[in-house]
Amino acid sequence: xxxxxxxxxxxxxxxxxxxxxxxxxxxxxxxxxxxxxxxxxxxxxxxxxxxxxxxxxxxxxxxxxxxxxxxxxxxxxxxxxxxxxxxxxxxxxxxxxxxxxxxxxxxxxxxxxxxxxxxxxxxxxxxxxxxxxxxxxxxxxxxxxxxxxxxxxxxxxxxxxxxxxxxxxxxxxxxxxxxxxxxxxxxxxxxxxxxxxxxxxxxxxxxxxxxxxxxxxxx
Length: 219
Fold this sequence. Notes:
Elements lengths: L5 E4 L5 H12 L5 E2 L2 E2 L6 H7 L2 H11 L4 E10 L7 E4 L3 E4 L11 E4 L2 E5 L2 H4 L2 E7 L10 E4 L9 H10 L3 E3 L6 E4 L4 E4 L8 E9 L3 E2 L2 E2 L4
Antiparallel strand pairs: 1-12, 2-3, 3-4, 4-14, 5-13, 6-8, 7-8, 9-12, 9-14, 10-11, 10-13, 15-16
């Protein structure tokens, strides 16, 4: 994946489409918690949306190859359900069984799905797309990223050095826009300062469901 590890595209989905997405998400509350809903790729409407040509073409444009959706999560931040996420890399992937392949682990179970930390060589084959169902501005807890931090899994010293030496970028996106990003990109979000909702449908894609001796689960 070429730098800086994230891309913003505005106006991919219309306001009407965003409303329709929120309607069918509101009918699927299994697994809902304070921060949103997990395991949404098991919902037919979400699985179909993840294969929308606008998203698949973005995947091809960035990765240079076709990608397959396998995981979807709704992140739902409001004045009543307000939370922050400390800066981190996303290194755990949903898998079908406990891994024995080199470079994987440790593993744990979340909402009935096994997750295992993956090696850098696998994580570089993953792309996440975040569909912004509400505007994401400076006051409602937008994504913050450290550009060019996505080459590999970082150890503690590398992590701290990048945090000190590289300014964060605030990713403000209008309703219907998307952010595509590497899971290895250092990212965070602050608490919202307003009651305005910030709902984001986060979909993850891979170039194969079979990755170095491990098969991804649909989650």
